[in-house]
Protein 1
Amino acid sequence: MRAKGIIFTGLSALLYGLAPVLSAKTYQLGSDALTLTFYRELLVLPLLLAVLWRRRTSLRVTAKQLAALVAVGLFCRGATTLMLNIAYLYIGVGTATTLHFMYPVFVALICRQVFGERLGRARATALALACAGVVLFLETGQGGGSVALGIILSIASGLTYACFMVAMDKTFLRQLDPFLVIFYTAGAVVLGMLAINIPLGRIVFALPPRAFFYTFLVAVASSFFAVILLQAGVRYLSATTAAVFSLLEPVSCALAGAAWLGEGFTLQKLAGSAVILGAAGLLACAKPEVSPDSREDLELMMSAEGYPDPPEEEKREVPKE
């Protein structure tokens, strides 16, 4: 189960890493931050409905669940995407993405201060190494406009994304079907962007075909597969551990930028990649650390969703930290 969590979270990070590069291409074709945020959530709704129909999952939720889903969608998922997309315009894709990756620190702090979760020596060391690797991706001399605003938005997007990861791990949302969670949070983002557009009138509804194509790729990669893989990964790992493995994203972003935007993959970025991969390897080899939720609750949730029972050797109690 731990190996599944590592694989799911790593794949999610690689897919998320494609989003900044594809977003930059849509901006070149007439899109903007509000338009991209609106369409990347709208375009996944039919896919999610099809999956839920095939899985015979009811769309019915309680009033409490709906309120939580809307709040997470608007103030965590939607706010993260919108702020990061705006930051790209001020300080560039590379710098904004790097500053966004303060979120593992925020995840660790929230879990420690709010839930009393111990960080542990292995996770603390891996987190410090990973953050040091991210710093090596930081680029200077980028972007025009208000650099300070871009920096603030990038860091704030990391905070709201950390809240999203913690919500997926520490609340009752982890017990819902992941496709159902993404469907409602994506719908909340779409409605929120339309509400913002009423006074601003910024959404560009008539984009060129290539812009729609890149936007669709962003939607499928980051708002469908990546989010679902991340939620699955958090279920097998704690939020803090999953956050560290998510730091593979700047590596993916740098490689995609070099391949599609002609950006240089410098020796500094290579060193940062090595440090991040080393941190991920250290965490993967460390003593298993699970979320404080009971193993019985996790197995019950998996059984309700049709997952096969884990082998007998995986049912043994995981040693506590």
Note: Residues 141-145, 290-321 have pLDDT under 50 and may be disordered.
Protein 2
Amino acid sequence: MNDFIFERQKIAWEKALSLLKPSAAQLEHGLELHRELFVTDHFGFLPSVCYNKKFVDKWNELKAGNIGARELSERMTYFYYDCCCSDEKYQDVFRRAMRNSGLNCMIHTVAEGKSREEDIKRMSCNLMLFRKFRDTIVQAGNADDILKINAEGKVAILWSVNGPPIVGELQDPDQELNWVDVWRRIGVRLMHLTYNRRNFIADGCGEPANAGLSELGRELIAKLNECGIIVDVPHTGKQSCIEAAKASTKPIMASHTAAKALFDYIRCKDDETLKAIADTGGMVGVYSFVGMLGGNDDINAMLDHIEYIAKTIGVDHVGIGTDNRFSAEQCPEYSTISGYPNARFNPHKWWGIWKKNPHTPKNPLESSSGSLAWSNWPLFTVGLVCRGFSDEDIAKMHGRNFLRVLRANECES
């Protein structure tokens, strides 16, 4: 067990074991299988948090200078990465977390799709991480890259963005769609059509309406197919998902979602949508995010969704996209940070507020220090063994399905 976890993660590890109740044989086999398989987090985040004294001092310095609340938030978002790359303790935690996860590949979101300027700033931060941790993580552009990176003993990272870079004047479609080529050259390989709200492309899952794709949305999908970028619909509304599946000539994904049949929540997909995605040859990743699973919001709830979706559309179309991350410890000084409680600026940005179906987690700590903790990745495999999935089925869900979808979307350039 100590090969997989840090000392301070034992509580989360033991919590998951107490819920899974594996036999000694199941535990041994699951952990060994996890070490042997090609394992992908189909939507995750690189380890955090590096809220060290340097971060705290900078925050308080900017606030003392009466900088605006929104500007403070933006600057500190980027300064956080500087701290990560200069903090030796964090660097050690980062490397150990990635190694102990047993992951071979991660689809990592690097931009929010709200403005091209903001997206490029976020991408630059992630490029800095690649340089600092080149001994641990390497950016991949295709399936062959992933296997070569793994052969070097490193984790392959594919870039995803939470929305398309179409935010301009919308007068010349070529002017807008050509930005997709820029994102492709930078390394983006998955792209959300929407993030909860309606945009120029489609309706998000948080909209009360259920409109489908716009004409521009259909052109975007054709462009993504041409460029080798996977169409991803985890935050997209039902009708838009179904129309996207019909419009795409290549397999699509919902990289991190769950089954609406088990939990009626806006981020979950109903059977019709799940089947539409599978019919493209695509796949669905199940998240490990507390509040969006229902039931007891624990590892068994996540496994329930995986089992249901596998029975509904087949194991060839299922994976795990945690939408979660490993969080390091905060420095003691972090408690001295205070924001702007009376400011008009709200850190819970409009596009992320879901008034419909607000979720109140039963066990809010499950995602960080409970059974769904990202550090429990090896136990996700144990859980699949406990549910009776064969080694071959687990191999498909852990990464083979994704490699197939990725190869089917690849273009020559």
Note: The CA atoms of residues 53 and 333 lie 6 Å apart.
